[in-house]
Amino acid sequence: MEFSSKLLEKAVYEMSQLPGIGKRTALRLVLHLLKQPKERTRFLSQALLSLREDIQFCQSCHTISDTALCEICSNEKRDKALICVVEDIRDVMAIENTGQFRGTYHVLGGKISPIDGVGPSQLTISSLVSKVRSGGIRELIFALSSTMEGDTTNFYIYRQLQDADIITSAIARGISVGDELEYADEVTLGRSILHRVPFENSLKNK
Amino acid sequence: MEFSSKLLEKAVYEMSQLPGIGKRTALRLVLHLLKQPKERTRFLSQALLSLREDIQFCQSCHTISDTALCEICSNEKRDKALICVVEDIRDVMAIENTGQFRGTYHVLGGKISPIDGVGPSQLTISSLVSKVRSGGIRELIFALSSTMEGDTTNFYIYRQLQDADIITSAIARGISVGDELEYADEVTLGRSILHRVPFENSLKNK
């Protein structure tokens, strides 16, 4: 792409550094901003800058939070002995949305992935391990995505805590509610048969 | 979506104001920035801000330019008497890419679209009309997209300049080079038959 303006070229370049945003999309977005009032660009830039500068993470669960202890960790009604281990804040939001979970979270900040240069030390695993070791934790629920990286991360944490006196569980995998069996992949279908639940239990939350 | 952080919520909101960026994508982009070094966010914000603040448009053709007269308009080798009328800078870049056009451009900045509240006065039509009226223009090539809005805009300009002593033309519509006839829409195929060209001409630029 040949640009008639260095300013435009720079803005498009920076925009196209975002994941999933190619040069063409970046140009479209930047041209859109140019057509909007200047405030729009100012608001966007300032919101991004102040997020990046002033971002805080909950001291306990490491989710993004404006306070030292996030709303969930500081909520007395939440079960602190039950911790759901997730990758990032999107998973927290997704699970919170279900309204089914009254425990707390631990946000790892990613998954172990040697290919992307992410080792255990870049994640909040040691914080989780010391939280468990300091006592008062009853159960860890692993809720990472079931990819190779997710499984590796789960297993790494599991090994670190093998001698700890806690229950470890993983979220159930199976056919989505409302999905047709014939379109399900065989791994998921296989697991859903292997980990079948008593029929009376399957009637809950319908 | 429920956010645990106002800073995050604001950044996601501002990001999701961009066209084609929903709340989920915005969250993904913002979380990506959080994982990157702070400079990334600073560079992006500054590039957008300085583009929006310091943007200039060519005094002659109204394309985005860092100089008062853009590179094309100030190039002595370009034919100033031949003007290609386009919607925005992306069209200029696309046509420049072909290497087939040695004239100049006129960037309208949009199309007449009452539904979007865009009237002739928001576009650079009057500047085009006075450019033609001040003389020295031989031909206008309409290269807007062939939508209702594009056709309306073409026709509006055509009417304004009906009495001017210039040639007006429109870019050829037809089957794309390499495309199969059977998959072409009938309007395009119809036009490509109606506006057929002498066979010898069709051999050029192959």
Automatic annotation (TrEMBL), chains A, B:
Keyword list, A-Z: DNA damage, DNA recombination, DNA repair, Metal-binding, Zinc, Zinc-finger
Function in brief: May play a role in DNA repair. It seems to be involved in an RecBC-independent recombinational process of DNA repair. It may act with RecF and RecO.
One GO BP annotation of this record: DNA recombination
Domain Toprim: start-end pairs: 81-176
Gene Ontology molecular functions: DNA binding; zinc ion binding
Positions of C4-type zinc fingers: 58-73
Protein name: Recombination protein RecR
Classification via InterPro entries: DNA_Rcmb_RecR, Rcmb_RecR, Rcmb_RecR_Znf, TOPRIM_dom, TOPRIM_RecR
A Pfam family of this chain: Toprim_4
Family classification: Belongs to the RecR family.
Species per Swiss-Prot/TrEMBL record: Flavobacterium macacae
